[in-house]
Structures are given as C-alpha cells and as structure tokens.
Amino acid sequence: MVIVGAGPRATGLLERIGANAPELWSGAHELRVHLVDPHPPGPGRVWRDEQSSLLRMNSMAEDVTMFTDESSTVDGPVRPGPSLAEWAAQFAAPDAPRFAPYAEPADPEVLAELRTLVPAGFPTRRAQSAYLDWVFRRALADLPPTVTVEWHRTTATSVTGPADGPQEVRLAGRSTPLRADLVILTQGHLDSTPAPAHRVHTDFARRHGRFHLPPAFSADADLSGLRPGEDVVLRGFGLAFVDLTVLLTEGRGGAYRTEPDGTLTYLPSGREPVLHVGSRRGVPYHAKTGYQLQGPRPPLPRYFGPEAVDALTAGGEPLDLRRDVWPLMAKEIGFGHYHELFHAHPERTAMPWPEFLAAYDQFGWYSAQLAGLVATAVPEPADRLDFETLDRPLDGLVFDTPDAFQEHLRAYFREDLARREDPEHSADLGAFLALLSLYGQLPGLVASGRLTARSLADGLDGWWQGFFNFLASGPPGFRLRELDALSRAGVVRFLGADIRVGTDEATGTFTATSPTVPGHTVHATALIEAYLPGPNLDRTEDPLLRHLHRAGALAEEVVVDDTHRHRSGRITVSLADGHLIDPGLGRPHPRRIALGAPTDSRAIAAFARPRTNAPAFRQNDTVARAVLRALDAGWEPHVGGPHVREPHVGGHGPHVREPHVAETHVAEAHMPEADVAKPVDCARVGT
C-alpha cells in the first residue's frame, strides 16, 4: 500500500489499521506501507517543526486529540489516547505518568513549552508538531509484526495501473516506481497557482515594481519584499491574517509590554509595514472561548442528525440551503446555546427548561412563535442567539472618518474578547459545540444530490463555510488583545466591510475602499490576499493530482441544475469509503482512495476535540477495515455499487452531479532531485 501524504490524516489511518488488525489481519501476508511525503511523517507540511515559534494553534491544548474515545461510533475498537494537554503533562514533573513510546522532544524550546503548557493554553504549532510526531510513533508501535512502514522523503508525481491490477506510483528523482495493490491519497491542504483575478494583480505589481501575494500558506510565504513603513492592503480577516500580522510585527522584532493597568502596548521595531485590513464582514473572527461548559453537555444532535438529513433528502424536490436546511441547522445551534444558558445560568431565564424545550421542539426557527418563546423565556437580549447580527455586525453602520471607525472596531473586539473570556456567557460554548456537530451530517446531505448547484456554491462552500469559520475557527483571545495594541500603535488600520480592491495605473498603487467609511481610499504599494488557496484541480500544484486530472483518471465535483453549474475544484470520491470516482470506469476505482481536504467530503479535520464523535475518525476506521479485509484476502477489488452518485432530476428541472475531467493531456512535469528514500528510524523493531 502506498499512502501519498504523511501528515495527520495518514497517521490517523495508520492508527486505525493498528487498532483493527487484531480482528481483520491474519498475518498470512506481509503488508508493506510506503509513506510518500517530503515533510516529516506525523506533522506533515502544515504542522512541521521547521516554522516560526511565534505561530500558534487556534485550539486549546485540551481540545486537540488524535484518538477515538467513548463518543466514537466506529465499528472497530475504541483505543483512547491522550489529548495534546494530557500528553504534554508527562514532561511537567519527573514522576508524571508516561505515555509510551516515551521520549522528550529534542528541541529545548519545545520541551520548555510543553513543561508549562496548561490545558486551556494555546500551544505553538511546533508543540503540536511534537505531539503529532509522537502519535505517529505510537501508531507504528501498535502495528503487528507483519505490517512494515517505510518513509520516502520525496514527492509522488503520478499513479498508473489497471483497475484490476497493481498500481505504479512514480516518485520525483527516482527511476523505479513503487508497485502497490492500493494507493491512498492523504495530501491535505494543497497549493494552487493563482486564479486569473490574482494574476491580474501579479502582473500589475510586476509592471510597477510593487508587491503582490496571492492566497498562500502563511508559514511558507516570502514576506521579505515588504519594506518598513510600506502601506500594505490585506484582504481577509481570518486566521491567515492573524499569522501574517504576527510574522510582520513580532517576526520583525516588535514586542508587547503589559502596562500596570493590564493594557497591552506594542513597541515597534521600525521594520514593520503599515497593514490596512478589510474583508466581507470587516471584522476579525470571533475569539475562541476561554472556559468550559458550566452545565451538562448538550445531547447532540437533536434537530439536524442522520434522521433529519434522511427526511430532508427523501423527497424529490431540490433543496435550497438557506430555505430548507439552514433553519434546522440554526435550531440545532440554538439548542446548544439555550441548553447551556438554562442549565448553567437559570437565574437569567424566566421558565423551567422542560417547559421551554417542549415549546422549542414545536416551532420552526424563523417562526413568530419561536421568537415569542425566546423573548419570554430569555429576558436579556444579550442572552439570545441572533445570527443575523452575528454574521454581519457592520451592516447599516457608516462612519464619517477612518479614525472614528478604528475606535468603533477596537471597542467591538474588546467586547467580543470580554464575552469569550467570561464563563457567564458560556452559552456561546454550547452554541459552538452544536456548530461542530453539524459538520458530521453535511457529507450525507451533499452526497444525496438534492442540494441545488447554487446552494452548494454560494451556500455550503460560500456563506456557510465562511460563517462557520467566523464563529468557530477564530484566534486565541490574546491575539485580539494584540490586535488592539497594534491598532493603537498605528501598525494596523481597519478598512471596513465589503472592501473593493483596485489598481491605479497613474500612481502604480493598489487601492482599497469600503462603504463603511464612504469617500475614503487607501493607496498601497503592496497587496496580500490573506486567506488560504481553495481546492482547484485545474490549478493544483500537486503533481500527482495534476497528472491524474489531465489524464482523465479522476473527476472534479460538478453540480448542475436548471439555473447554475458549480465546479467546486474538489476530487469526487465515494463518500462511504473514499474511493476515487474514475470517469473512465464510470464507477469508483477499486485501487485508489482519497481522504481529507481536497475531496468533496468537505475537508473533515484530521484531528478533533475530544468526545465529539469526530467524522474523520469514523471515516478512517471505515477505510482501514475495508483495506485490511481486501488485502488480507489476497485483494478483492471494490466494485462501487451503491456508492456511485446517480443523476437526480428534481421537480424544478435537472440537478445532475456530473464528473468533470480536463480535456487535454500533458506530459509529466519534470521534478527536481529529492532526498534518498529512507525507512522511518523511529519505528518498532522490524520496520
């Protein structure tokens, strides 16, 4: 078996192979697993140790695990393991319980961090790298003796082979391909060449000697071309913006000082550019909560579980996300919010929880009855869930001067930070947990083929993903405190909502405007697209996917109805088991599987918060069991069947899920020489 991509997703799959092997692997054969990745196995590219120690996770240490637990509904055995916080605790004291295989991280800086890491702390990415490295080593140690793993420190460039025979995986810098019964793609988030709109700005920057950065991974971006004091427009206010700001401030020698009154002050180094930031909403992502639930955990899901999705998709009518699906999703989030409010803060409610819940069950989310119920039962408006205000906090607001807007936005995220740090508002955490629970139901909704193409494009991949990230994927609270200090120091300036970026040929500058501050235009000599590249098979920089796509051996997810055609850029897979849909076969390819971010499973995260029945763990378990059964039997090909997505014709016109393949075939790209392959040097005996 060849696994392309050796990051957390591959590690999770290996962990499940080890967990299921006692039941499903007879040991009659030897299973050789080849991991192909130029980056270290376990952390992979995104979480590798070789990145700035200033960059942090946006999750608390106690909220990160790679292991199944009592909440996991998997067919294989549950094998609990430590969260990042529990694993780090073993380094705090000499007599602390050890997790095998025990070894202190070699980097003294990382070890010092782990020794002082508290469960509610936000670790550096390098600390997470050490945890993922250990999880990988443990997964290797748990494999049976007849399963061996070898790491090839290079890049896979192509895979060929018949559906009923061995596959050949070619590697950069190698003349001999790897032969395999099965190939699994777990590359994670991938780079793409710039979209046409970004190439226009790149060409403008080249003509005028300016700086332009298309969407990129912040840790890998070359920011050396930005000059001290240079005006830079950043389009995007999420996690990529946070990372870029850190690298351009503290990363250039700036520092923070805490004043006697607790206020944070930024001390510039003089090497920073001036950062002008705006986005569609015009505000930063909400900070992560800094507390635990104060009441019992809400029993999720209640309104948007498998039964609800089955009922939604059973009819013949196409589904509109905002009209048909979102009310159930919103009601689920509301349930998590009010469950915590009524149980943890009953003094702020005006009726018993059973009475409220009985009525809440009966009414639709947008009904007047539900609005009346909430108004009666929750006297304080600040305790009610208002999605419209949350989603567009600057709507209807206009400021006469840029300075007036700076003051308003600083007050906005100071208030947000105070709320996210105060357990009196723990209902927000209840809503967050319900928000997470929705993700496990979305693949089935998409696979049904009932969502209209516009709902998939503008709703699920557009508005919903942005809204989810805005509420659930924000930075640690201290980052907003730093942003406040940077704003007061004049290093960061806020542009507003719905920003428009243009170019001025006369001055050779990028321009940025926002209706939030009418009449105000920023001229800048640099433009940064402060967000990650999305999936795109036409523009992917991954050579293996590019080869498969141009050879017509994989399909892009395309959804068509009578008004819209949506190409998502994602790989179409059988959502039940991850097999690639092969247009030439007209069914899933029996020997090729793809998991994770580039697929139409909608980027199920490779690691998760404990006790959330993580979808990725369930998928890893399903795939591991199928793989072990097939390989142990001497290989019985997967034949697709019910996992193939059939065209669906709805009541309002055709809604067809069709494959899209590239129309031209090009020669395999030349790849530079890579490091010589070497076995993992940290595995159990026999690897």
UniProtKB/TrEMBL annotation:
Pfam families annotated for this entry? NAD_binding_9
**What is the superkingdom listed in this entry's lineage?**
Bacteria
User: The FAD-dependent urate hydroxylase HpyO/Asp monooxygenase CreE-like FAD/NAD(P)-binding domain covers which part of the protein?
Assistant: 2-189
* InterPro entries (alphabetical): HpyO/CreE_NAD-binding, L-asp_N-monooxygenase_NS-form
Q: What's the protein name?
A: Adenylate cyclase
In which organism is this protein found? Streptomyces seoulensis
